Amino acid sequence: MRNDTGRTPLWRLLLAGTNGLLLGLVPFSIALDMLVESVHEVPQDSWTDWGAGVLLVLILSLLTFGSAERNVGLPPRGARGPVQRGWLVGGALGVLAACAVWWGNDWLHPRLTGWDDGLLALVALALVTAWGLTLVGLARPEPRRPAAPRPAAVPLAKPAEPTKPTAPTKLAEATEATASTKCPTQPAPSGSTTRPVSPRPSSRPPRRPSPRRQFWGTAALAVLAPVAYPLFARYSQDGAGVPAWLALPVFLAAFPVALATVLMLLVRTSVVSARRKLALLGGWAVLGPTSWLLSGALAVGDPIRPVWAVETAPGPADGAGVTAGAWALEGTLVRLTSGELTAHAVTDGATRWAWRPPDGRRFCAAAEHPAPGVLLLALRAPDAARCDTAVALDPADGQPLWSAGFAGGDSFRTDTTAAAPAPGDEAPPTGQLALAGPAAVLSEPAAGFRGLTTADGTELWTAEAADGCAPVGVAGEGDRLATVEFCVEDPEIGRHVVVSRRDPADGTELSRHPLPHGSLPGDLDVVSVEPLLVHSAATLYRVPETAERPVELAVETQGLTLRHQLAPGAFSAVPLRGTTVVDDLLVVRHWQDSDRYPVRTRHGERWHTRARLAGYSLRDGTEVWRSADFDGEVVGLTRQDGRITVLNQRTAPTDRTELSSFDPRTGERVWRGRLHPTQERMEAQLLAALPPDDGWLLLHQGTPSAERPVLQRVR
Question: For the region Disordered, what residue ranges are annotated (predicted)?
Fold first, then answer.
C-alpha cells in the first residue's frame, strides 16, 4: 500500500476521503431530514423532494467505493494515519455538505423542483463515474524497479588459539594499574564468538506536548466551547436579524471542536489521561446546558416570547367557539363568539367577566367600532337566521345597558357546519350596527336607518332610503357616520350604490356620493370611516366630506381584509383589516397574482407565499412606495406611534413567525423580531399593539380542535 519512498499514494488518500465524504453526507442527510419531519406537524419542503434520485446515486456510490476500499485493504499497522485522516476529513466535509444543503434548501427548493428527478440523477451519476475513473487512472501500477543488491555476509571471526603466558612488561603493568581504577568489565564467556554490530540510524524521540499546552487545550474544549457554542446557537435561532448564511459559519466553527472532543474521549488513556477525559465530559455535561438555559433566560438574540397565554377548551362541533370578532379596549380585550362574550385583562390574561345571552339565544351581528362605555351587538333565536334584538353592554362589567327590537339581516356564520362561501359570493353580515356620537344606529332592510341613544336606547331619529334604493349597511366611528344604499338601475348611471355622510345626532344627510356596483354583493364594504374608504366593484374609493367626486385608489383590493386560512365565519362580525391609515397615507398589504406559487414536493404540491406592503396617497390615489418582498403571509397588521407593525408567518422551508415594523413614510423595514415559539398555523389573527414596552396581543380564531392558546400577550 506504500510506495518505495514509504509514502501513501495519492489515489489511496483520495479513496479514503471519498468514502468518508459519502459516509458523512448520506446518513446525516437522511437523519436530518427525518428529524425535521418529526418536529414539524406540517410536512416541510425537503431537499429529497428534488434530490431523491441523487440520493439513490450517492447510496450506490457509497457501496461501490466502500467495496473498492475493502478490496484494496489497509496499510500495515503504524502506517494507517494518512488513511484515517482521509476518513475524518471526508466525513467532516460530508456532514458540513449535508448541513449546507439543508440550510440552503430555502433557495434551492423552488429552483430545482422544476427540474426532472431523472436528469439530476443522471448528472450525479456522470460526476461519480468520472471521479471513479480518475481514481482508477491514478492507481495504475508503476513499472518495477530493479531490486537493490543485498550486502555480502560478513564471516564470523574464528576463535583465537591459546598462547603461552609471558612475563609482563613494565608497560603492561602500568596499563593494568590504570585499568584497575576504572569500572570492571564483564569477561566474555569462553568459547563465544562475536558478531559485528551495525550502527542503527539515530531516531528522535516522539514529541509530546508540554503540560501547559495540554492544560490550555483541555480548558478550551471543556470550558470555552460548551459556553460559547450554545450562545451562538441561541443567537442564530432566536435573532430575527441574523442572516441565513450565518448559521453555516457557526456550524463550521463548532463542528471541528466537537469532533476533536469526541476523538479525545475515544482515544487510549495513554494518549489522553482519564483526568482530561473527565474534565471534557463534565464541561460539556454541565456548562453546555447551563449556557443554553442562561442564554434563553437573558434573551440572547432578543426573541419575542409569550408573557401569558389563555387556553380554552375545544369548542363544540358546530363551531360556536370560533372567534367572530374582538375589541382591544383600554386594559381589556373582549372576545366575541356566537354564544358568549368574554373579557380578559391585558396585564395577566385573567377573565374579568363573561356574558351569555339568555334562553340559549345567539349573537348574530356587532358594531365594528365601540363607543366609550358601550358595545353594541345583535341577538337572534337559536334556530333563526336573522337578527331580531339589539343589545348594548357595558365593557367594564359586561352587564346589559338596554335592548331594543331590531329587524336585521343575516347572522354571521360561526355557528354552522356549512361550508364557507367564497369571498364575495354573499353580502357580508357587517354593517348592520354602528356607534357614532350619541347614537346607536341600526340598518333595517325594510324600514331604513334608525338611531337610538347609547345611554338608554330611546329613539333619536329615523331615515328612510331614497326612492328606488334599499339600505344595505351602516358604519360609524367617533363622531362620523356613513350609510350605504343599493339603488336599482337608473336611466343615467344604471345600477349603483350611494354612500352618504350623516349627522349622528339627527340623521341629517350631509353629502351623497354614487358609486358603481359590482356583480357580486360581497364587493361592497366600508373599509374605514375616517377617512371614509369604500370598496365597491373591485375598486377602493376615498369618499370626500363635501360633494366632490370620490377618489379612486390604485389598490389591489384582495389585501383589504385578512382572510388567510380562517375557519367558516371566523372574524365575520368584526373583520381583520389589512389596511391602516397614517396621516394622508393608506398602508395596505400589496397583492400580486404571483405571490402564491406552487412548488412540487414528495407530499404533493405546496404553496409558497411572499408578501409586501404598499403606501397610497389619499389625495390622488397614486402609489407612494412599495416595500421589499418578504417570505410568508401577512396574518396581522396594526399601527402604533407612527409605525406599521406586521405579523408575518411562513411555513416553508421551516416554520417562522416574525414581527416587523415599517416606516410609513418610506416603507423601509426598521425593526424585526422573531416570535418564539413559532406559531403552528399560518392563519390570520388579531394583532393589537400595546403601549411601548408592553408588547402585543395575539388573538387566534379558536377552532374547535385547537390545542394552543387562543389569546396571548407577547413581548
Answer: 142-213
Sign of CA dihedral 668, 673, 678, 684: negative
Q: Strands (DSSP E) along 251-374, which ranges?
A: 306-310, 325-329, 332-336, 341-345, 351-355, 362-366
CB 45 within 8 A of CB 599: yes
150: its cell numbers? 543485498
Q: What is the pLDDT of residue 110?
A: 65
The answer to whether residues 442 and 406 touch, using CB atoms and an 8 Å cutoff, is yes
| φ, ψ for residue 42, nearest 5 deg | -90, 130
What SS3 state is found at 62?
helix
Closest CA to 247 of 45, 32, 100: 100
Q: What Å distances lie between residue 128 and 64, 122, 140, CA to CA?
A: 10, 10, 19
Beta carbons within 10 angstroms of residue 473's beta carbon: 24
- Locus of grid cell 501547559: 212
- Cell 354593517 sits at which residue? 431
- Torsion 577-677-695-245 (CA) sign: negative
Residue 298 grid cell: 437573558
Half-sphere exposure of 586 (CA within 13 A, CB side): 34
SS3 state of residue 436: strand
Whether 348 contacts 595, CB under 8 Å: no
Locate 489 and state its grid cell: 338601475
Any bridge partners for residue 394, and if so which? none
Cβ-proximal residues to 625 (8 Å cutoff; 6+ apart), any chain:
614, 615, 666, 667
Q: Give yes or no for a contact between 323 and 336, defined as CB atoms under 8 angstroms apart.
A: yes
Task: For the chain, count helices (H), then strands (E).
Answer: 11, 34
- What does the alpha-carbon distance between residue 417 and residue 419 come to, in Å, rounded to a whole number? 6
What lies within 8 Å, CB to CB, of 243 at 6+ separation is: none
b/e map 684-701, b = 16+ CB within 10 Å: bbbbbbbeeeebbbbbbb
DSSP state letters, 463-480: EPPPTTEEEEEEEEETTE
Residue in this structure with the C-alpha cell 413614510, named with its chain if needed: 665
Mind listing the pLDDT tens digit for each residue in 304-326?
A: 778 888 877 665 555 677 888 89
Spatial separation of the C-alpha atoms in residues 126 and 119, rounded to whole Å: 11
Q: Residue 483: CB partners within 8 Å, gap ≥ 6?
A: 441, 443, 449, 463, 471, 473, 474, 475, 499, 500, 502
> H-helix or E-strand containing 715?
none
DSSP code of 48? H
Q: Which residues pair with 379 in a beta bridge?
A: 363, 389
Non-local CB neighbours of 315 within 8 Å, separated by 6+ positions? 321, 322, 337, 702, 703, 704
Do residues 361 and 406 touch, judged by C-beta distance below 8 A?
no
Q: Say how far apart CA 486 and CA 494 lie, in whole Å.
A: 11
Q: What is the CA radius of gyration of the chain?
A: 41
pLDDT digits (tens, 9 = 90+) for 97-143: 888 887 777 667 666 766 766 778 888 888 888 888 888 888 766 55
Can you say whether the dihedral through the CA atoms of 94, 97, 102, 105 is positive or negative?
A: negative
Sorted by sequence, the CB contacts under 8 Å of residue 12 that are 6+ apart come out as 1, 72, 75, 82, 83, 139
83 phi and psi angles, rounded to 5 deg:
-65, -45
Three-state SS letters, 635-679: EEEEEECCEEEEEEEECCCCCEEEEEEECCCCCCEEEEEEECCCC
Q: What is the pLDDT of residue 24?
A: 85
- Assess whether pLDDT exceeds 80 at residue 249: no
Question: What does the block give as the cell for 543?
Answer: 369618499
Give the single-character DSSP code of 371: B
Would you put residue 441 in left (φ > 0), alpha (ψ -120 to 50) or beta?
A: beta
Residue 402: which residues within 8 A CB-CB, separation 6 or more? 391, 392, 456, 457
C-alpha cell, 153: 555476509
Can you read off the three cell numbers belonging to residue 499? Answer: 354612500
Q: For residue 221, which of 266, 273, 274, 265 has the smallest C-alpha distance?
A: 265
